[in-house]
Amino acid sequence: MTFVARVRAMLSLAPRVTWSSLFVSVPERTPAAGRKRLTVGLLTGCVQRLVFPQVNAATVRVLAAEGCDVIAPNGQGCCGALALHAGRLDEARAFARRTIATFERAGVERVAVNAAGCGSSMKEYGQLLADDPAWAARARAFSARVRDVTEIVSELGAPQAPRHPLALRVAYHDACHLAHAQGVRQPPRDLLRSIPGVEILPLAEPDICCGSAGIYNLVEPGPARELGDRKAAHIDAVKPDVIATANPGCMLQMSSASARLGRRWPIHHPIEILDASIRGVTL
Questions:
Q1: What φ, ψ does residue 104 adopt, rounded to 5°?
Q2: Residues 43, 118: contact at Cβ < 8 Å?
Q3: From residue 203, how far is each of 7, 174, 231, 236, 283 by CA, in Å?
């Protein structure tokens, strides 16, 4: 692939960031609705915060509706996932230390993550800082509190908030950093199945990557594009109303692949679909 072709491929993935999205944020503290069950910190992320701020908003609403005090510390920054994906370990460690300290000060019982790549990296802080005597124990304790948001919904047990029906045929894509790296496969499906009217459609080759893979689609855009087209073809075969996946990189990758196929499927995080059900609105 030539340099020009590589740049074109990378630009095709570039997200649309509006001026207004630069100023969208969730409240630093959102109280639980009804009986309090848990105090949860929220990683607002980098790509998620700028490109998909509605995912953070939905996350806060769902957790609060399910009885969680939600704290999104204003002082948080990058968790270091992209630096870790790129092999920039010293940089990743610096981000990890800052993230740990930020959520320690927040005094939360769990740290919710709605971006699979971030969650995978944060669950590995114990290994990342294992040789740092000042941070090793703190990193292990922090990682033990990190959960994908779908895991927290599952952990809470019986729903506290009512679910309104949504007649949706959903193609759920397992983000590699959620299914393979974290071993989280069932909670997102359970979350979707808790919504009356939602049908999860079986996909061919469900364990095959969509081509996002951290920064793979940036450093190897050709093979990544082939994987994206393969995934889009499998999705097209089941004719969904909506695609669901729990990682912003996958959302961008599949949006690009579906556009090449001439399809414009709505692509949402599972937590957005649950949020719509709880609020009784359409997506």
A1: -60, -45
A2: yes
A3: 31, 10, 9, 10, 22
**What is the C-alpha separation between 72 and 84, in angstroms, rounded?**
23
Rg (CA), the chain: 18
Polymer length in residues for the chain: 283
Query: Burial letters for 232-252: b for 16+ Cβ neighbours within 10 Å, e otherwise?
Result: bebbbeeebbbbbbbbbbbbb
Each residue's pLDDT tens digit, 205-255 = 999 999 988 888 888 889 999 999 999 999 999 999 999 999 999 999 999
Phi first, then psi: what are they for 147, rounded to 5°?
-140, 145
Helices (H), 70-167: 81-85, 89-106, 116-122, 125-128, 136-145, 149-156
What is the spatial distance between Cα 281 and Cα 163, in angstroms, rounded to a whole number? 11
What pLDDT digit, counting tens, does each position of 144-202 carry?
A: 999 999 999 999 999 999 999 999 999 999 999 999 999 999 999 999 999 999 999 99
DSSP class of residue 73 equals: -
Alpha-carbon separation of residue 270 from 60, 149, 172, 187, 203 (angstroms): 13, 10, 8, 10, 16
At residue 229's C-alpha, the angle toward residues 224 and 233, to 5°, is 150
With a CB cutoff of 8 Å and minimum separation 6, the contacts of 33 are 64, 65, 67, 160, 161
User: 3-class SS at 29?
Assistant: strand
